């Protein structure tokens, strides 16, 4: 099986697996991350095959939808890639990417590094900011039945991984606890350029949100 055939089979597998996924972590999210990753890859010296598989499988079983279990996604990806006879070195690389791509509160030390991870991480973070990031943020907040905003509950910028994962704070707080921080956490030159416009759009949105919050603007 050629690399292209393996990528096509991975696309079909992910589409089917995420059929009933929450709207911000569904196949369309994965597709956007995949497209972003391929675009960023054009300016980076990376293995495009690893980038493709890593981007497509990065959210195959997001731990937030599996009682916080971070082992399920890597396990599913490993078993699927093994069945496709993907090279063992490539499988291990993809699994490491899946294990280390998550934000996890931003205070967790990343245990693995590679240029391919840098590219996919930027692609994933781009989908967490800008107009798409705003839409996904409120979609997930609604999914978790969180309030839109409560001025009495301040953002927590020093959360541990456990605190971040168990937070029930209003959706607006997530802008300050993650989304607005991502611009300065991008890895690649292309990712940084793409993030700037999306970051500025979020600032404009927040400015308008606060103007309208009292209902008199």
What does this entry look like structurally?
This protein is mainly alpha-helical. α3 packs across α5 and α7 crosses α9 (171-177). The relative contact order is 0.13. 59% of the residues lie in helices and 0% in strands. The model has no long low-confidence stretch (mean pLDDT 92). The protein has 10 helices and no strands. The N and C termini lie far apart (60 Å).
Produce a short descriptive summary.
The chain has 217 residues and is an all-alpha fold. It has helices at 3-17, 27-41, 48-57, 72-83, 88-100, 115-126, 130-143, 161-166, 171-177, 189-213. Helices cover 59% and strands 0% of the residues.
Radius of gyration, CA atoms, in whole angstroms? 18 Å
Poorly predicted runs: none
Tell me how many strands there are.
Answer: 0
Task: Give the N-to-C terminal Cα separation.
Answer: 60 Å
Overall pLDDT confidence = 92
Q: Can you tell me the overall shape?
A: globular
Name the beta content range: under 5%
Order of helices and strands: HHHHHHHHHH
Number of helices: 10
- Report the sheet with the most strands, covering strand number, pairing sense and barrel closure: none
Helical coverage, percent range = 55-70%
User: What structural class do you assign from the helix and strand content?
Assistant: mainly alpha
What would the keywords be for this entry?
217 residues; mainly alpha; 10 helices; 59% helix; globular
Fold topology:
Elements: H1 3-17, H2 27-41, H3 48-57, H4 72-83, H5 88-100, H6 115-126, H7 130-143, H8 161-166, H9 171-177, H10 189-213
Helix pairs in contact: 1-3, 2-3, 2-6, 3-5, 3-6, 4-5, 6-10, 7-9
């Amino acid at each position: 099986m050629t690399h292209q055939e393996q990528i096509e089979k991975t696309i079909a597998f992910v589409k089917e697996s995420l059929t009933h996924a929450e709207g911000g972590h569904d196949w369309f999210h994965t597709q956007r991350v995949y497209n972003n990753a391929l675009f960023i890859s054009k300016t980076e010296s990376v293995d495009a095959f690893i980038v493709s598989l890593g981007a497509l499988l990065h959210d195959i079983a997001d731990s937030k939808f599996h009682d916080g279990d971070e082992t399920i996604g890597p396990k599913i990806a490993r078993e699927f890639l093994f069945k496709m006879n993907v090279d063992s070195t490539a499988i291990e690389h993809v699994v490491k990417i899946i294990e280390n791509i998550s934000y996890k509160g931003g205070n967790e030390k990343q245990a693995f590094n590679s240029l391919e991870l840098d590219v996919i991480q930027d692609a994933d973070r781009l989908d967490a900011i800008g107009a798409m990031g705003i839409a996904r943020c409120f979609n997930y907040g609604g999914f978790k039945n969180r309030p839109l905003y409560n001025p009495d509950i301040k953002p927590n910028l020093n959360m541990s991984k456990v605190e971040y994962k168990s937070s029930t704070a209003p959706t607006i707080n997530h802008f300050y606890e993650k989304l607005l921080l991502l611009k300065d956490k991008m890895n690649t030159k292309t990712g940084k350029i793409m993030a700037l416009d999306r970051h500025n759009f979020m600032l404009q949105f927040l400015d308008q949100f606060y103007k309208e919050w009292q209902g008199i603007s």
